[in-house]
Design a protein that fits this description.
This protein has four helices and no strands. With 70 residues, it is mostly helical. It has one domain.
Length: 70
């Protein structure tokens, strides 16, 4: 099973305060991008299994975290 990347850990940490779920994040990404991503897809991005610049940029905007440089 894949571990979270540094970006994934930053996202999970940011979701803790105020408490928000990954499902909340998925819904916000879908609103922000017009895409139709689901929770397993976002998990794969957070674990580095999948790459999506559009989704990653949306997550960074929504959570006010820096875009990863890796």
């Amino acid at each position: 099973m894949a571990e979270y990347t540094a970006f994934g850990l930053a996202v999970k940490t940011k979701l803790l305060d105020p408490p928000r779920t990954q499902e909340w994040l998925v819904n916000e990404i879908n609103k922000d991008t017009g895409m139709n991503v689901d929770s397993p897809y976002v998990s794969k991005i957070l674990k580095g299994v999948r790459k999506s610049e559009r989704v990653t940029a949306s997550i960074c905007r929504l959570l006010d975290i820096p875009v990863p440089t890796e």
